[in-house]
Give the backbone structure.
Amino acid sequence: MAVWQFKFSLVPSAGIVAIHGKMVGELRSYQPPASEDIDDDKDGASVDYWDSAGASPLNARELTALLPAHPSWSSDAEMFGSKRGDRIELWTDDINCILDMRAFSESLLESIVAIAARMKCKVVVHGTGEVVDPDVEQVMARVKQSGAYQFCKDPDEYFRQRRHH
């Protein structure tokens, strides 16, 4: 993923509750792996929140109208948009949304968030794993906190901050 792309997933609320027994504030499977993580972790990368919700992300047809079809590199996914710009990926077990902060489209974000609300999904931010309600203001706040947004706003400052960490 390019530094200027903000990535999040749409995850069914029912699947989160089915797996964890309640709504949780973050999902470790959307965070970078830690060295102490083990393969059979309850919240590991193998968790399929869609299957646990009795749904399939491939049925999210409303999302396919937002961006033009793009050839998929995997038989397990349908892709829309472009590799280096805005993109929506419908996988058999996930919906990934990637927004290009160089040419940010607030209307695309609003459309995705509205569809997430209708689908009873949460927005899960990649990198932090934070679970966010499908509310444009809440999601926009996470966009503005992201490295992708910061990079596009001020690349020099972005790299200065990275050197000090």
User: Anything to note?
Assistant: The helical segments are 13-20, 49-52, 61-64, 106-118, 136-145, 147-153, 155-163.
